[in-house]
Specification:
mainly beta; 27-stranded antiparallel β-sheet; four-stranded mixed β-sheet; 31 strands
Length: 547
């Protein structure tokens, strides 16, 4: 990594090496009761409670920190080594309950309703210590970030399936979603509060939506068409300790989200299908909070308080063909357009007086414009023998991001950064399963993703081969599973990826992440009751996404 400080005519280099580990503990309990007094009515009540803790520890040595001036010169101003200890702890307490009811009328119409309420408490500190190297007892700087942010979420559904009509089956419905998420964020440096990085935040988001959909099949045709009308109102408030007044950011919209699909059966083995859909991908409070967190020694990570949701349009045209002996092939061409595409980007970090911090950069979640992807996905199921099944798939597409990143820095200046990134990306996957006999099998999987572009850089290729042997005993009640994950043996670069971002004459950063390989595990599971469990357990709908 290096940072260019044009005002001081110098370049600072921060090469580093170290380890990053994760330790996660999750435990929860679920309770669900279904009651069907008759064939027309069904009642269901469910509860969920759980705790989750995830620790990310990064121990990194900056072994050759130095600056060179003037820019492009050869003489070092200094050489300095230090050790960074960065511990990020994320905690979550989850509690939610739901009630569902469904009724079937004599004319075959159906009505169903569901209500869910969730409480989640999120929090956890981040510790950032810059220490001496090799003498770790020397303390250069200690920073401590902490936050408490409770979340309250409500979701209500009402759906009605009308009696059959001559033109097909009509379904209509309404959904209400409400999120109330607050947070208190504290940033301390060497035991003292840093007010410009400490804040109280509040996000209130209310969504009303209604939909109608019709489906039918006639002769060789199958079709579905629908539309959803959504109204969203979002109020985000942020009160920095360094400012007197609270800042309020309002955003709302009323939009239609149509969808349609049409399938034609050419013959008994061949189908052609086309489809269109429009959907919204909402952001999280975490990605909106402009509170800075010291994610690493050289990174301030923060959100964008005016972050917009992504609006996604997808058009597809595909064909599937079944062959003899369980073999099949398929192909799908598609075009995907995204407005307000969200990327994780980097910028120079400025102090309040406009000076460049030449040892830290900003890492920001922000809208960077629009993206287009046009591609082709093909695949096949191949069965050489009755016991051997292979699934092969490949996807290739051209991906382009075009737009402008607008970011308000800590010196009060709004700076614009042009985004123009294009690349051809491909991936393929293989799943090969062989059944030795009725209750024993071996499975090999291989997934590969090529280099791909981001708004300000690229992510390198990533691949992972895995092998699984499974055997069942005792009338299939006891299952033994032996897994060899991320096969490498020192011969490949399995489970390894390099992430790079840069801007000319400003900064360059690249990190090669090397994850665990050649992991062997043995799992034993025993089923006491072989009867099929039809219970539908609930799970977190709001807090899980924010965690």
């Amino acid at each position: 990594m290096f940072i260019v400080n044009a005002l001081e005519n110098k370049t600072t280099f921060l090469p580093s090496d170290g380890e990053r580990s994760f330790d996660e503990i999750t435990y929860n309990g679920r309770f669900n009761v279904d009651y069907t007094p008759n064939k027309s009515n069904t009642y269901s009540i469910g509860f969920f409670a759980g705790k989750r803790t995830k620790e990310r520890l990064a121990d990194i040595v900056y072994y050759d920190n130095h600056s060179i001036s003037p820019i492009g010169g050869n003489d070092r101003d200094y050489t300095f080594a230090y050790y960074n200890h960065n511990l990020r702890i994320r905690k979550g307490d989850f509690a939610l309950g739901s009630f569902d009811y469904a009724h079937k009328f004599d004319n075959n119409s159906k009505i169903s309703t569901s209500i869910l309420y969730e409480y989640t408490f999120l929090g956890g500190p981040t510790e950032n210590d810059n220490l001496g190297h090799p003498d770790n007892t020397i303390v250069y700087q200690q920073e401590y970030n902490t936050n408490d942010n409770p979340l309250y979420g409500t979701r209500f559904n009402l759906d009605y399936q009308w009696k059959p009509f001559s033109f097909g089956t009509l379904e209509t419905g309404y959904q209400f979603r409400d999120l109330d998420h607050t947070g208190k964020f504290v940033y301390e440096r060497d035991g003292l509060l840093v007010p410009e990085f400490s804040s109280d935040v509040s996000l209130k988001r209310t969504i009303h939506s209604g939909y109608a959909q019709v489906t039918d099949s006639k002769s060789k045709w199958e079709y579905a068409a629908g539309v959803r009308l959504e109204s969203m109102d979002r109020v985000y408030k942020e009160a920095l300790q360094s400012e007197v007044l609270e800042n309020t950011y309002n955003y709302d919209f009323v939009k239609l989200f149509p969808s349609a699909s049409l399938q034609y059966k050419v013959n008994e083995n061949t189908n052609i299908k086309t489809a269109y859909s429009k959907r919204v991908e909402r952001t999280t409070t975490f990605k909106m909070n402009s509170f800075a967190e010291r994610e690493h020694s050289e990174v301030f990570e923060q959100g964008d308080n005016t972050l917009l949701p992504e609006f996604i349009d997808l058009v597809e045209l595909g064909i599937t063909k079944n062959l003899k002996g369980g073999n099949a092939i398929y192909a799908t061409a598609y075009f995907r357009h995204v407005d307000n595409v969200i990327n994780r980007v980097n910028t120079l970090a400025y102090e309040s007086n406009g000076a460049v911090l030449d040892s830290i950069i900003n890492r920001v979640y922000s809208n960077v414009g629009k993206s287009n992807a046009i591609g082709l996905e093909v695949g096949a199921t191949i069965k050489p023998t009755q016991n051997w099944t292979n699934s092969i798939g490949a996807n290739v597409y051209n991906y382009a991001i075009d737009g402008v990143l607008n970011f308000k820095h800590r010196d009060g200046v709004d700076r614009n950064y042009t985004i123009d990134s294009k690349s051809t990306i491909y991936s393929f996957n293989l799943n090969s399963t062989y059944n030795f006999w009725e209750n024993a099998s071996v499975q090999f999987t291989f997934n590969y993703l090529s280099d791909r572009n981001t708004a300000m850089g690229s992510d390198s290729r990533f691949y992972s081969p895995n092998l699984t042997f499974r055997k069942k005993f005792m009338d299939d009640r006891l299952t033994a599973t032996l897994q060899w994950q991320n096969i490498d043996m020192g011969l490949f670069n399995t489970n390894e990826q390099r992430i790079t971002t840069s801007r000319p004459n400003e900064f360059y950063t690249t990190t090669n992440y090397v994850y665990e390989v050649d992991m062997v595990s043995l799992n034993l599971s025993y089923t006491f009751n072989a009867a099929k469990d039809k219970s539908k357990f609930i799970d977190s709908e709001f807090g899980k996404k924010e965690f």
